[in-house]
Design goal:
The structure is a single chain. The longest helix is centred in the middle third of the chain and has 35 residues. It is built from eight helices and four strands. The protein is globular, with a radius of gyration of 17 Å. With 221 residues, the protein is an alpha+beta fold. InterPro entries: Glutathione-S-Trfase_C-like (IPR010987), Glutathione-S-Trfase_C_sf (IPR036282), Glutathione_S-Trfase (IPR040079), Glutathione_S-Trfase_N (IPR004045), GST_C (IPR004046), Thioredoxin-like_sf (IPR036249).
Length: 221
């Protein structure tokens, strides 16, 4: 069985978990306190980051590389289009959420509110929290614009771009940092992807000291 070293609310780990679940790959989840830099974990990934996946006898790191490997070795059901231009758009949006969204929103909300406490690194920086709360509005509006023109974020079918976005937003939703009333089309998109069987394990996550809001597990939120 595959084994994933992860942190429950890490959007990068969640993206890999969604890909594995969509492909129906059974996986053992191992929570890793990566910030403690345990020697065994550092041997698995000298970068000292999660996720780290053991699959097919290979120890692999970096969520983008992991998801590409899963897609190439388990092409059904597809999470990447066949057309090169469409594949480019999927990769662009995955990078958008894992880079720009993460830097402007996730790191300033989730990391300040949750990670600092878990890692015993002090209190949230209110300046960062305010900046993240402001920036997420821009990103939700951009998603709404995309979804006004497409069925899914990157086109007419669900792709890895949707999983990347959902991984970040579900982590933020766990701490009630997403205003779902800002856009009906984004809310409908999230409800659609949240109802997929691949999402069930994420909705069962519990972080000690941070109980999820009541709507988190509600498919009709």
């Amino acid at each position: 069985m595959a084994r994933l070293f992860h942190v429950p609310l890490s959007p990068f780990c969640r993206k890999v978990r969604l890909s594995l679940a969509e492909k129906k790959i059974e996986v053992e989840l191992v929570e890793e306190r990566y910030w403690e830099q345990d020697p065994d974990f550092m041997r698995r990934n000298p970068a000292g980051k999660v996720p780290v996946l053991r699959l097919d006898g290979i120890m692999m790191a970096e969520s983008a590389a992991i998801c590409e490997y899963i897609e190439e070795t388990r092409p059904e059901p597809p999470l990447m289009p066949v057309d090169p231009v469409q594949r480019l758009e999927v990769r662009r949006l995955v990078s958008w959420f894992d880079d720009k969204f993460h830097r402007e929103v996730t790191s300033k909300l989730l990391y300040e509110r949750v990670n600092k406490k878990v890692m015993k690194q002090g209190y949230p920086d209110s300046t960062n929290v305010k900046a993240g709360a402001k920036a997420i509005k821009y990103h939700l509006d951009y998603m709404a614009w995309l979804l006004d023109h497409r069925r899914w974020l990157a086109g007419d079918v669900m792709t890895l771009a949707d999983f990347a976005a959902a991984a970040h937003l579900s982590s933020l939703d766990y701490i009630s940092d997403v205003d779902w009333n800002r856009s009906d089309v984004v809310k409908d998109w999230y409800a659609k992807i949240k109802s997929r069987p691949a999402f069930r394990a994420l909705l069962a996550d519990q972080v000690p000291g941070f109980p999820p809001p009541k709507h988190y597990n509600d498919l009709d939120f």
